[in-house]
Amino acid sequence: MKRPDPDVPPAYDEALRIARDLAQDSDSLLPYSHRELENARYGQGFAFLQKIGTDRGEMDGYVLVTATGYGSGLLGGGRTIDTVIAEHLARAEHANRDIPDSELSAAHRVALEAYDAGLTRIDEMPGRAAIDAQTADYAEYILIVLRHSSNRGLSGRNILARNDFLLHSPDAGRRYTHPCPHCRRPAIHEERYPRSVCDDCRSRTTDRAGRRVTGFNTHLSGGMIAYYADTLDRSDDSGSREEECVEVTRTGMCFIDGHPATMEEGRFGGIVVQMASG
Fold first, then answer.
1. What is the average pLDDT value for the chain, to the nearest integer?
2. What is the C-alpha R_g of the chain?
């Protein structure tokens, strides 16, 4: 199922097809007309009602297919399809709000200027010497998150609007970035992973023979498996499956530009790549 495109709301026939895939019982699916949802400025889409079998018997449910996402769930206990739609539209408006300058700190403004200029780090900016170390550290962190966003086609302010946590003030005394131990570019800092690498170096991990590998969690609670990058996202419709790099999965040992590194599951999920110590 393809990802929603916020700039291209789904046509009804496409929304119905997606809703049938999402519904527990597609035969029970009924369109629910909602003028505001179908003509929304943001999050436009279509709603459907369905029946969902549970251990308490058959219950009312819904499916939403919109420009910003797909979802389904149960109704009842005061939660109606109109409530679900209203919550969805409120989130869509919030994610597309204009952020006034008064909500932005000096670090935010520096990071936005760097992002919108296409820079990859704060020290590439003219006048960087005038920025104090703490502000520069938090600005680097914000810039990394902006550049890592899946909404790269948006302006920096639009991405901030979709990620409220980035608008918080920095925690006093917390370190947000450190120089990548391989290339010295900024990397997001975590005390548990002091030798973690930047995104650019992470994208160049290989096995011992120099073949590109990428790590993934095996399930929601953790675990790691490494695949050869050239076997992912095949576009030739060959039906070939991803090829596991057993060496890296088993040992966690990988390489960046020929230098030893490690790949492991993060404490709270995700994959962490660090340069090997010593």
1. 91
2. 23
